[in-house]
Amino acid sequence: MNSTKQFSKMFSAQIKMMFREKQVWFWNIFFPVILMVLFMVIFGGGSSESFKAKIAIVDSQPNAASAMLFEQLQQIPVFEWESEQPVTLEAGNKLVEKQDIDALIILPESESATTIKLVVNKADEQGATTQAVSGILDQFIQQTNWTVAGTAPTFSLAKTSISSGADDLNYADFLLTGMIGLSVAQGGLFGMVGLVEMRRNGLMKRLRMTPARMGLYGLAGMLVKLLLGIVQIIILTLIGVFGFGANLHINIFSLVIAFLAGGLVFNAMGYLFSSFSKSIEAYMGMSNIASMLMMFLSGVFFPLESLPTWLQPVTQMLPLTYFVEGMRDGLIYDSGIASGAFWAGIGVMVIWGVVSFLVGSQVYKAKSVSDAQ
Questions:
Q1: Closest to 195 in 3D by CA, of 275, 260, 120, 250
Q2: What is the tens place of the pLDDT at every residue in 219-266?
């Protein structure tokens, strides 16, 4: 049987196996959907317009200055007040300790005092809400100082945002494309578990006794997973657009090229992991390590520039970094393929894929020879 016919039969067999395995549909379709919805709600569900912080205020010794500050603080629209009246310091601290409120504001204790204190829970000290409340309060104090001094500020801040894509792009679009890239990558990394199961059941040894070529079998498996990746992209994109209002600006050429390169590289990595694994636990362990490492170091949830400087070179060696960038180029930025950075990323992914596939094939071949001796 020639290679083409052998490959087509292996591909057809694995398609049938895929439809029979309900776990494949869960881990490759339903789990990515659950994961994306969860992260989109956590990281992308809020905006500055809907931001609210629950606040309590302490005015232990009411005076004219504290009354004026209290009245002005109540005008800040993003503050939700635990009580319309000031609370005691002890009650306020307990509210912070129990995390019933986001922050406690303590007004100056006398006419001559000039310090407004902000009390937050240590567990939330570096949280986004605490940082936002601190920034709002700092701006409020500066504005109050200008008012008390009787002068108007000379300069003001006007905020705007731009991107390399269309004007309607937002963080939800950035997160959606990152989650699509992550889901396709995980589908490849975890998708070759069937090979490990075959080895455990003795089916792999029987297959080696036939004229079948293991490299063709692995390639057929990778292409089957590639088809699943297409289904993943369609489903996740529809959820992102209709469920979270994501905005897409598709460039079909860069999307197809990035998807093919990324889909093959992660399936090749899954094939490589399966070649080294004697048990499902070992395979899942390697896949989990690779997935977790790349998940937080490849720009899925936030820009790479926000990572520590010493860590950024590591991101440039990870294939998921370039896959996510490629998916964003194809789905939201519409930047096209006439870019050196785009092809450099494709080149890195191709190297990862070719090396993973060749090493995996050699390991399977070596084990075949070992079993035959």
A1: 275
A2: 777 788 788 888 888 888 898 888 888 888 888 999 999 999 998 899
Q: Tell me if 136 sits within 8 A of 149, measured CB to CB.
A: no
Instruction: Name, in order, each residue with C-beta under 8 angstroms of 362's C-beta and a sequence gap of 6 or more.
Output: none
Give the contacts of 204 (CB within 8 A, at least 6 positions apart): 195, 198
300-323 residue pLDDT tens: 888 888 788 888 888 999 999 999
User: CB neighbours of 264 closer than 8 A, spacing ≥ 6?
Assistant: 222, 226, 353
Nearest-10 Cα torsion for 353, 356, 357, 363: 180
Quote the CA–CA distance of 269 and 278 in Å, as a whole number.
Answer: 16
DSSP 3-state of 203: helix
Q: Is the pLDDT of residue 46 over 60?
A: no
DSSP 111: S
Strand intervals (E) in the chain: 53-58, 79-81, 103-106, 117-119
Buried b (16+ CB within 10 A) or exposed e, 233-255: bebbbebbeeebebbbeebeebb
